[in-house]
């Protein structure tokens, strides 16, 4: 957490950094394809999943 506060100069308060990190981690986990350990996912499939999830996330954020 402290590393993110120092790197991102706009986050001067710990609470603001905590909120940002929770949202960032949630979005990152949503966009990352879930695979089993050692499972290979083709690049085309990974890209398609990412685009679908990113479109869904943008739709949700625009509605908010």
Write a brief caption for the model.
70% of the residues lie in helices and 0% in strands. The chain has 64 residues and is mainly alpha-helical. The protein is flat and about 40 Å long.
Provide structural commentary.
This protein is mainly α and 64 residues long. It has one domain. 70% of the residues lie in helices and 0% in strands. It contains 3 helices and no strands. It is flat, with a radius of gyration of 15 Å.
SSE string, helix = H, strand = E? HHH
**Rg, nearest Å:** 15 Å
Query: Judging from the principal axes of the Cα atoms, what is the shape?
Result: flat
| Structural domain tally | 1
Total helix count?
3
Strand portion: under 5%
Helix content: over 70%
The span between the termini is 27 Å
E-strand count: 0
Structural class by sheet pairing and helices: mainly alpha
The pLDDT mean sits at 77
Considering the chains and any ligands shown, give keywords for the structure.
mainly alpha; 0% strand; 3 helices; 64 residues; 70% helix
Strand and helix map with partners:
Layout: H1 2-7, H2 14-31, H3 43-63
């Amino acid at each position: 957490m402290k590393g993110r506060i120092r790197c991102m100069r706009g986050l001067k308060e710990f609470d603001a950094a905590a909120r940002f990190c929770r949202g960032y981690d949630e979005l990152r986990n949503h966009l990352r394809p879930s695979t089993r350990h050692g499972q290979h996912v083709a690049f085309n499939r990974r890209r398609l999943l990412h685009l679908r999830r990113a479109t869904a996330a943008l739709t949700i954020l625009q509605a908010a």
